[in-house]
Specification:
The protein has about 425 residues and is of the alpha/beta class. It has two domains: about 170 residues, Leucine Dehydrogenase, chain A, domain 1 (Rossmann fold), CATH 3.40.50; about 150 residues, Rossmann fold, CATH 3.40.50. It has 13 helices and twelve strands. A seven-stranded mixed sheet has the order 9-8-7-6-10-11-12. α6 crosses α11. The relative contact order is 0.14. The protein binds nicotinamide-adenine-dinucleotide (NAD). The site of nicotinamide-adenine-dinucleotide has 25 residues, from α7 and β7.
Length: about 425
């Protein structure tokens, strides 16, 4: 049975039939069956340490006052401070935050980062707010959860609906109340106030590194490898361009409108990314265009779904012709599709490993903040490479030793680390 922790935990929240928390608990139980961890520890890990819910009043630009709900779920901190994003989205719920905070615990553990898992946000549609309103809301939220967070306690980061500017306001509000500039309270800040070079590019870079290692592992030559990438945003475009630079032939990329396709390979640097020019992929002159569904079924060596969740499903899993799937997006493969790929012998390298470059460079940012010393981009990229290869090797060894899928192996590595830390520390009192 495959362990798909992220099934249902994509950015849109849970699946229709199962909430993010139910999925997370189900997957924890499945992962636990593979390893020798005390039942009491598994029971503890089904629950968050705490969930904080606060009222966040906002004076709107028209002078009226509206009250929004802010949430911070902290799952586990046995390996270090809680870490995870803050999302501004109308669909944010405490239950979803708990499920996603559990996922952060495993993601940090598989990367062997000294962090635990958290997630939070505000139940609000950020598109309904002016910039000034968003700033006031963020500052008040920072104040309301100030006792819960901190650079040694819980370190938020950008997520859906929040960005580097949001983190800058958050950090400023926290610092003003603490009486000292505290950049390490959040990551994903602009570099001028303690953000890290390379942070934005990091998830795509890690996807490219893991794809490159998977290509090697399956005895392919990157120079003779064809790749299709769904989603030409931050993750997809950075991954596609790096793999292109490293000699792979990127034959297809897409955005929400569809895909461009050239069997001779696309010039990925000439195609505008989502950030550079939203929804411009189809305007790039290429011999062929495809639908997003057709892209996933191309006869390529590697397919990288890097757009949204739940795109590889029971309906299309049997039509996928790629030899390797590397998950760039969070939760692109449903539980049912995972089982089909396992049966068909198509390796799926999980999101929890492949796109973990983001939280890894967040860790580097935190290190830079507490040491008050900025690293060069070259150093960030070199250290990211080292961390990714180390995590890749840990998971690969588990795959080879246990004859498990890549996803199972990643969760086994993560849960073992958390379980061992809990065993060593013991239960208090
Ligand atoms: P983005 O907004 O920069 O880009 C998303 C791209 O996907 C765009 O090109 C968009 O047009 C396309 N797209 C949107 N809906 C689509 C659809 N239904 N079908 C095909 N293409 C579609 O987003 P991003 O930051 O690159 O994130 C992509 C995925 O990676 C998400 O699942 C996100 O949760 C995950 N992720 C992002 C980061 C990060 O830090 N950016 C880190 C880890 C995981």
């Amino acid at each position: 049975m495959a362990i798909n922790m992220l099934d249902g935990l994509n950015s849109d929240g849970g699946t229709e039939s199962e909430s993010a928390l139910e999925t997370a608990r189900r997957q924890l139980t499945e992962a636990a069956a593979h390893i020798n961890v005390d039942d009491g520890i598994i029971e503890r890990l089904k629950h968050p340490t705490r969930v904080v819910e606060v009222a966040v009043p906002l004076k709107r630009d028209d002078g009226t006052v509206e009250v929004f709900t802010g949430i911070r779920a902290q799952h586990d901190d046995v390996r270090g401070p809680y870490k995870g994003g803050l999302r501004y989205h109308p669909g944010v719920t405490a239950e979803e935050c708990i499920g996603l905070s559990m996922w952060m615990t495993w993601k940090c553990a598989v990367m062997d980062l000294p962090f635990g898992g958290a997630k939070g946000g505000i139940v609000v549609n950020p598109k309904d707010l002016s910039t000034a309103e968003k700033e006031r809301l963020t500052r008040r939220f920072a104040e309301e959860i100030r006792d819960t967070i901190g650079p040694k306690r819980d370190i938020p980061a950008p997520d859906m609906g929040t960005d580097a500017q949001t983190m800058a306001w958050f950090m400023d509000a926290y610092s003003m109340q603490e009486g000292e500039t505290t950049p390490g309270v959040v990551t994903g800040k602009p570099p001028v106030i303690g953000g890290s070079h390379g942070r934005e590019e990091a998830p795509g870079r890690s996807v490219a590194i893991i794809a490159r290692e998977a290509i090697r592992h399956y005895d392919k030559d990157i120079e003779e490898t064809t790749i299709a990438v769904q989603g030409f945003g931050s993750v997809g475009a950075n991954a596609a361009r790096l793999l292109d630079d490293w000699g792979a032939t990127v034959v297809a990329v897409s955005d929400v409108n569809g895909a461009v396709y050239d069997t001779n390979g696309l010039d990925t640097h000439a195609i505008a990314t989502h950030d550079e020019q939203p929804e411009a992929v189809m305007r790039h002159g290429a011999p062929n265009t495809l639908t997003n569904e057709e892209l996933l079924e191309l006869d390529v060596d590697v397919v990288i779904p890097a757009a949204v969740g739940n795109v590889l499903t029971e309906e299309n899993a049997n039509d996928v012709r790629a030899d390797i799937i590397v998950e760039g997006a969070n939760g692109p493969t449903t539980f049912a599709a995972d089982a089909i790929f396992e049966e068909r012998g198509i390796p799926v390298i999980p999101d929890i490993l492949a796109n973990a470059g983001g939280v890894t460079v967040s860790y580097f940012e935190w290190l830079q903040d507490i040491n008050r010393r900025q690293w060069s981009l070259e150093r960030v990229n070199n250290e990211l490479e080292t961390e990714m290869l180390s995590a890749w090797n840990d998971v690969r060894q588990e795959v080879e030793a246990g004859d498990t899928s890549w996803r199972d192996a990643a969760y086994i590595v993560a849960l073992n680390r958390v379980g061992e830390a809990k065993t060593a520390r013991g239960l208090w009192p």
